[in-house]
Amino acid sequence: MSSLPINESIDLTLGSLLAGSMSAVGLSAIVGFQTFLYFQIYPQDQMRYKLLVAWVWLIDAAHTLFVCLTVWDFAIAHFGDKEHLNVIPFWYPAHALMSFAATFTANMFYTWRIHKMSKGNWYLIVPILMLCVARLTCGLVLSSVEIKFKLWATVYDHFLTVRAASYVASAITDIVISVSRYYYLRGLNQGYFQTKEVLDTVLVFTINDGLLTSAVAVAIMTCTLAMHTNFVWIGLFFNLTKLFANSILATLNLRNWYRHMHRPMGISLSREPHLRNTVQFEMNRGHMPTSPRAETMTQNADSGMMDESDVLEVQVNKQIEYHVEMDKYSGSTLDGVPKTVDLKV
Predict the structure, then answer these.
(1) What whole-number distance in Å separates Cα of residue 115 and Cα of residue 266?
(2) Which pLDDT value is given to residue 300?
(3) Is residue 95 situated within a structural domain?
(4) At CA 228, angle to CA 225 and CA 234, rounded to 5?
(5) For residue 279, what pLDDT band results from cuts at 50, 70 and 90?
(6) 11, 61, 91, 286: which could join 42 in a potential S-S bond, CB 3.0 to 4.6 Å?
(7) What was the pLDDT predicted at 7?
(8) Is there a domain that residue 329 lies in?
(9) In which domain, by residue range, is 211 found?
């Protein structure tokens, strides 16, 4: 039988749990703030996005509750009982189920966006879906055996391969999704993003987002294999769900910021040099204007950083020419020719 957590110091057992839980609660607060921000900025967004945000918040709230109950069971309910460190409390697999649900939700959300951006490239979508399902299956198996056997040593001895496969699938899935999003977002450069700086910002966020979750998954797997006699890996695992939840909400909320990086928010009137008589009305709170290449952006709306329901453009193109003879009013002439003024509006 493998060594048990009781052989480690309290710093690496309860200390790791407390540190991980405090970090998770802090990230959960950011999830709550982003949820509030979303409903304030996009009250007229599509219902599917509203339901997605509500679902993510509910999962995150339940996950935070189960994390706190797990720490309570070890640190308060069984304070000083080292033997209890060998036992898996019910709240831990319950928290893990919420984690796998949040992960699967994020994977499906980004897979759907890749499907839109790639115009239905099933040769890419099917492998991603298989990775997502494999990841979810491993998670469900682990949660089931943890509830059944209730001992860390038993789960580690008999299901280490499943746990390792779960984290490997997690890292690979995040990398594939991140690279795919990067590849297709680069293809939206023409006629979609207003400036190259905006495009670069989106690409940097996309890559860093995927690399962060992948790095955490690899760190969890490494700690599980190298330090399975302590709870450092659990402290890291507490925070993985929060990263996925914040990733989804940040992707939705940053649509507004991307569109206004180089112009003021609110309602404004603007004239563009190549459309001198075109007036665009820019409206806040989820209904934003497109660039002059409106047709291209509308075609790509569902696949990029905003949606068709988020776009409203009003163009007024009217030219009026006035020919005014000034001598009728002032009586003045220039070399016998009446003064005239041509006005164009």
Answers:
(1) 33
(2) 45
(3) yes
(4) 100
(5) very low
(6) 286
(7) 58
(8) no
(9) 5-259
Q: Where residue 101 sits, what CATH number does that domain have?
A: 1.20.1070
For residue 316, tell me if it sits in a domain: no
Q: So what's the pLDDT on residue 11?
A: 82
Burial class of residue 180 in the structure, from the number of CB atoms within 10 Å of its CB (0-12 exposed, 13-18 middle, 19+ buried): buried
What is the Cα–Cα distance from 104 to 97, expressed in whole angstroms? 11
CA-based nearest residue to 183, from 121, 255, 106: 121
**DSSP-based three-state secondary structure for 261:** coil
What integer pLDDT is reported at residue 258 of this predicted model? 58
End-to-end CA distance of the chain: 87
Tokens of 207: 């890559």
Among the listed residues 207, 252, 258, the one whose alpha carbon sits nearest the alpha carbon of residue 106: 252
Mean pLDDT (the chain) is 78
Per the CB < 8 A criterion, the answer to whether 138 and 72 are in contact is: no
Dist CA 155 CA 158 (whole Å):
6
Q: Pick the residue with more confidence: 140 or 314?
A: 140
Give percent of the chain with pLDDT exceeding 70: 68
Question: How many domains is the chain partitioned into structurally?
Answer: 1
**Do 134 and 107 meet the contact criterion of CB atoms below 8 Å apart?**
no
| Distance separating alpha carbons of residues 139 and 162, to the nearest angstrom | 8
Q: Where is 186: in which H helix or E strand? A: helix 152-186
Whole-angstrom Cα Rg for the chain: 28
How is residue 316 written in tokens? 């007024």
